Amino acid sequence: MNDNPIFVFLALLILTFGIVSKRVERTIITAPMVFVLIGLVVSFFGIELLPEGPKAGLVKPFAELTLILVLFIDASTIDRSKLKLDRILPLRLLLIGLPLTMIMGSLIAIPLFPEIGTVALIMMALILSPTDAALGQAVVTSELVPIRIRQTINVESGLNDGIALPPILICFAILSGSGGGSMDISYWLTFVIKQFLFGPIIGGFIGWLGGLIVDKSSRAGWMSHIYQMLASVSIAILAFSLSEHMGGNGFIGVYFAGLMLGTHSKMIRERIQEFGEAESQVLIMFIFLLFGMILIPLSYEYWDWRTWVYAILSLTVVRMVPVALSLIGAGLDKKTVLFIGWFGPRGIASVLYLLMAVIQLGLEGYEKVISVISLTVLLSILLHGITAVPFSKFLNSGKKLPT
To answer: Does the reported pTM lie above 0.70?
Structure first.
């Protein structure tokens, strides 16, 4: 631990921010903003807390564990009974809006960056397609926003991380030359089917069985409160590992484990969620610190006018037009459609996938792609954080949302 001063620095930051966190909640300042900006300051003064950069051995396992816990906790907070009654909105966003976002992002990127290979640009668009409801936490927790809309944004954010991963992995494989010419259409078709079939089945079963065991053991007086809390990490990691081992998508498996969590006790579920949220929050802040400390400094020299244009379009047109098209005939007013379209922040999933790309593909030749993703996420952290509270109030009022 002493060989990695970044952990001491992270501990100090979390303690310091935690002291004023309740006061900060009443402002437009968010934790991701603070940790990213502190990372930038550390980089500016040349303080080497992680000299190896994104290639450091601890980065990949921490990145994967972060995404595992985020997906599990996001899914476990969803009220399945209410979701069954109104599943049409998230299904529209995931089955229509997300593919359109991926396609539109790619089609805009190809003519804008002709010097970059098509597969790399598609990978860039895919990495920027998942959303992160946590960046607009006030939106998914505010009672000013109808529960139907909050749950729609939360479900979309939780599931699109895992849905975007298989095509991202295909891009990684193509760009790195994995498997050579043996990887034909039938291989990729089998790969995608296994990812989307085995992940949900295995992950859902682990979540249901794990929650059921925790429930029964707790009711019998065998399981202490502490180990009820620890179950969140155990179930999430088991769902991920077994899904991956069987050829499925581990991240989709984790999400379905949280969604199908088998405990019927409200108290036990709350304990599992509370501990998981606390653990994942530490990891998320670590990733955002790395983002500001490493990825932004690697990127800003490449921020030309095309980078800014794409980043702005990614947060607006590329997101909002597909959302609007996917929600045609859903019975929502224009203000609500605009609200859902705007609150598709690019955050932790995009940063994690970017880190995975850097680890697997390296930096050379991908500087522009890294810079576009980094700028888009940075703008999203700032803009969506600032607008979460005021836009939630606008949605609940008779006024129109600012456009």
So the answer is: yes
